[in-house]
Amino acid sequence: MNFFEHQAAARRSSMRLVVLFALAILGIVVAADLVALLLFGRGGHQVGVVAFVTLLTLAIIGFGSLYRITSLRGGGEAVAVQFGGTPVPENTSDLQLRRLRNVVEEIAIASGVPMPKLYVLEQESAINAFAAGYSPSDAAIAVTRGTLDRLNRDELQGVIAHEFSHILNGDMRLSIRLIGVLFGILMLGLIGRKILEHGGGRGRGAGAVLGAALAALAIGYIGLFFGRMIKAGVSRSRETLADASAVQFTRQTVGLAGALKKIAGLQDGSKLSDRGDAEEASHMLFGDGVGFSGLFATHPPILDRIQTLEPGFRAEHLSALQAQWLSAPPDGLEEDVRMGLTGSGHATLPSLPAANARMNVTPPMVAAQVAHPQSDDYRFADTIVSSLPEALRELAQRREAAMPLLLALLLDEAVAVRDKQFGEISSRMGTATVEVVQDLRQRFIAGLHPAQRLPLAALTFPLLRRRPRPELDTFLDTVHAAIHTDGRVSLFEYCLGRLLQVQVREALDPSQYARFGRRKPGSVKQEFATLLAVVAQAGNDDPAEAQRAYLAGMQRVLPRDHVPYAVPAEGVRALDAVWEPLDALDPLAKQVMVEAITAAVSADGRVSVAEAELLRTICAVLHCPLPPMLGEPGRA
What we know:
By secondary structure, the protein is mainly alpha-helical. It has 4 domains: 3-76 and 179-234, no CATH class; 88-168 and 236-328, Zincin-like (2-Layer Sandwich); 357-373 and 516-631, no CATH class; 380-513, no CATH class. The protein contains 28 helices and 7 strands. It has helices spanning 3-40, 46-71, 76-82, 95-111, 145-150, 153-168, 171-185, 187-198, 206-250, 254-265, 276-280, 302-309, 315-327, 332-339, 363-369, 375-387, 390-395, 402-409, 415-429, 431-443, 450-465, 469-483, 491-508, 525-539, 543-557, 579-583, 587-601, 609-621; strands at 86-87, 117-121, 129-132, 140-144, 357-360, 606-608, 633-635. The protein has a 4-stranded mixed sheet, with helices on both faces. A 3-stranded antiparallel sheet has the order 6-5-7. α24 (525-539) runs parallel beside α27. The longest helix is centred in the middle third of the chain and has 45 residues, at 206-250.
C-alpha cells in the first residue's frame, strides 16, 4: 500500500474501533444489568433497576473515556511524559543521545515531516520504543535506555523507521484514541478494585457495598477481556505493516532484523517494568512490552517477524545468539565503531544538485513517493544537513533562534517588499528581532540552497513548539503579516509561511486537528481551480504556457469538468480560502490532488530544484509529506 492507501486503511480502522467499542459497551451493560437484576431485581422494580444501571454504566464508561482522552489532549509530548519519558536536549553531547538525534533528523528530512520531539525511558533496560501524537506536527518518539545501549546505528535506524511509519500512516491518532476508549471500558473494574482495596466501611450497608464492588470488579474483567481483544485486533496488522514500511524506508532488512533478534535473544527482551501503564501502551510499542500471547497478542510472534525479514533464520540460530549474548551482552556504540557506522552511517554522500538542475518526474511517480523515502533520500538528507554551515546548524538547535531564523526564511527577494516585512516584524516583535533577522539573512539565508530551506525550517519546529503560547500567537500574527505584505510575496515564501502556521497551530491544539478528511474532488472544484491557476501562473511567464499547465492539472483531477482558467486578482492571497477544503479531501482523493499539482508544476515533464521545493511545501501544507529528491536530476 502507498501512503494514501495506508491513510484510507487507518480511517477504516478508526471506524472499526468505534464498532468494537460499541459492542464492548453493549457486553458490559448487559452484564451489569444481569448482576443488578440478581441483586436488586425483586419486587417488580426490574425495569427501573435496568434503566438506572444502564445509564450509570454508560455514564461511567463515557466519563472515563472523556477524562483519559482529555488528559492526552497535549498529543505526543503528553503521552511520552505520562509514560516516564525524559526529553532529549537539542544540543546534547551524550554520544548515545546524539546518535539518536542524528538518526531521527535524517529520517525526518528524508520523509519530509517535521522533526518529532524525542524522549528516553531512562528506567527501562528492555529494547522498545513508541511514537505518539495526533499528527506529525505534534509527534513524539520515545525509546528505552536499553534501545540506546544495545542497538547499533543500523538497528536503531530500523526501529526509528518503524516508528516513523506509524507517524506517517495515521496509526498514531488511532493509538492515542485507543488509550482513551479502553480506559472507559475498564472504569467499572477500576472502581470495584479501589473500593475493595480501601474497604467498604462498616455498618448495615457495608455488605451491599462490598457486593457491588465485587460485581463491578467481575464486570471489569469483561471490559478487560474486550479491551485486550480490541487492542490485539487493531495492533497486530498495524505492526506488520510498520515492519514492511521500515524496510521500504531504509531499503535494508539487516537493521530491523538485528533489533528484533536482540529483543528475542537478550534476557531483558522488550518487556517493560511491571507498571500499570505498560499494558495501557502495549499496542503502541515496537515490541511486546507486556508478554501477552495468543488472542491477546498485540504483536506477531517475534520469530515470525524476523523470518519475514530473513526467511532463512531458524530457531536454532536464535538459541546460538542467546548463548553468545548471555556471556557478552552487545554494546551498540562498540558495534558502531567495529562496523564503521559512526557519523552519518553512509560512506559517501551525494552533492546538492546545481541550482539550474531539472528533474524528470511524472505525477504518479511523485504521488508514489509521498511519505515513502528510500535509501537515496536518506543519503540526500545527510547531504542537506552536512552541507549547512556549522554556525547555522547550531542556531537551528537554539530555542531563542527559532523564530528569527524562520522569519529570515520568509523574507522576499525584492528590497521594497522586504522593507515592508521588516516594518511588520518590528511593530509586533521589536527592532531587536528585526536586527537579528537581517543579520541571519545576510550571513546565511541569502546564499542558502533551495533544497535546504524547507528542511532547515522543519528542524526548528520542535524548538518553536516549546515557546509560551502568547509568544507563539504573536509569532503567528507576525508571519501572517509578513507573507501578506503585498501581492509580490513569492508563492514559495507564502506557502512556507502557511506551513509554519499549520505546524504551530496543530502543535498547540493537536487533538483539534486530528481527523481524516471525507470530501470528494467534485465538492472543491473552485478551490482546485484557484490553487492550480496560482501555481501555473507562478511557474510560467507566458500566459499561454500558464494556461496549458493549469489545464494539465485540471485534467488530472477533474477530467469531466470545465472550469475556465482565471488567475485570481489577489494573487497568492487567494490561496487562504483553499487550504482547509483541500486538506479535508479523503485520502485517495488527496492522491489525485498531488498528481494534479505535480502536473501543473511540471507541464513540460521536468521540474527545477526551486519548483520541486515549492511542490514539497504545498504538499506539506496539505499533509502529504514528500522526500527532498523527486527524481534523478539532469541538465535542462
